[in-house]
Sequence to fold (141 residues):
Amino acid sequence: MAQEGGIINESVNIIDTPGHVDFTIEVERALRVLDGAILVMCSVGGVHSQYITVDRKMRRYEVPRVAFINKLDIMGADPWKVLNQARAKLRHHSAAVQVPIGLEENIQGLVDLIHVKANFYHGSNSENVVAGDIAYFVACI
Fold:
């Protein structure tokens, strides 16, 4: 972070490491320089062995992290299974901060538990996000 004439300039560098076991050394090198990490897990595949390896390295280098569960719109998506696997296999103290409204082809949005709002996806590609009250969400079900 640099300061020039009262203006603070900040930058964020994103390092996207491959998840394949052949790139374990590259992942370890990246973890040495990180201030934080986002662990992206598939809602269909769940927690597999490479996640456990990477998480072990994150603990070694004391990298703070959050987990993100993606692919909620794919057949077989089960974010609750992945959340429970993160607790059991990775020993994460996990809690959902967003809850999907529907799954697979029926996904309609997310409930943001932090801001107590429901975000609905509209449009052919869900390009429009409309925020509403959770009470409105409950009425739509």
Remarks:
- Residues 111 and 118 are 4 Å apart (CA to CA).
- The chain has two domains: 1-96, 97-141.
- The mean pLDDT is 82.
- Helices lie at 24-31, 49-60, 79-89, 134-140.
